């Protein structure tokens, strides 16, 4: 078992349509490799790049080498099984990393403007707050 959490493009789906959309997405039928960050949106790619600095991928590009794993005793517990789709990034973290991974995941999601579904928690959806627009010349 793993602690699972999902980041997705907030423009892709509404909260009311999410369950049906997620069921389709989790069939993993897109015609590409699911370890290629190049297939996703720029915001999700930036989110993933930052996330993997702390929680590197278990497999595929960017996965730690045996020498890196041998040199850092904590690294193996932080490796994460990711699936990257055109509008989502799914992470399956070690349960020992659940609190830390959720905190970073949510912080980076807010920074990069992506939505999050807390799959292993209560499946709640957290959407980015709209950016405030400054009205120039108005008081």
Any overview of this molecule?
33% of the residues lie in helices and 15% in strands. It is an alpha+beta fold and 139 residues long. It has one domain. The chain has a 5-stranded antiparallel β-sheet with strand order 2-3-1-4-5, covered by helices on one side. α2 runs antiparallel to α5. It is globular and about 45 Å long.
Short description:
This protein is an alpha+beta fold. The chain contains 5 helices and 5 strands, in the order βααααββαββ.
Keywords:
15% strand, 5 helices, alpha+beta, 139 residues
Which residues form runs of ≥5 with pLDDT under 50? none
Overall mean pLDDT stands at 92
Helix residue percentage: 25-40%
Tell me the overall shape.
Answer: globular
Q: What kind of oligomer do you see?
A: single chain
How much is the radius of gyration in Å?
16 Å
Q: Strand sequence of the main sheet, in spatial order? A: 2-3-1-4-5
Beta strands, count: 5
Following the backbone from N to C, one meets helices and strands in this order, namely EHHHHEEHEE
Helical run tally: 5
What is the total number of structural domains?
Answer: 1
> Kindly, what is the distance between the CA atoms of the first and last residues, rounded to a whole number of angstroms?
54 Å
Structural class: alpha+beta
Largest β-sheet summary: 5 strands, antiparallel
Percentage of residues in DSSP E strands: 15-25%
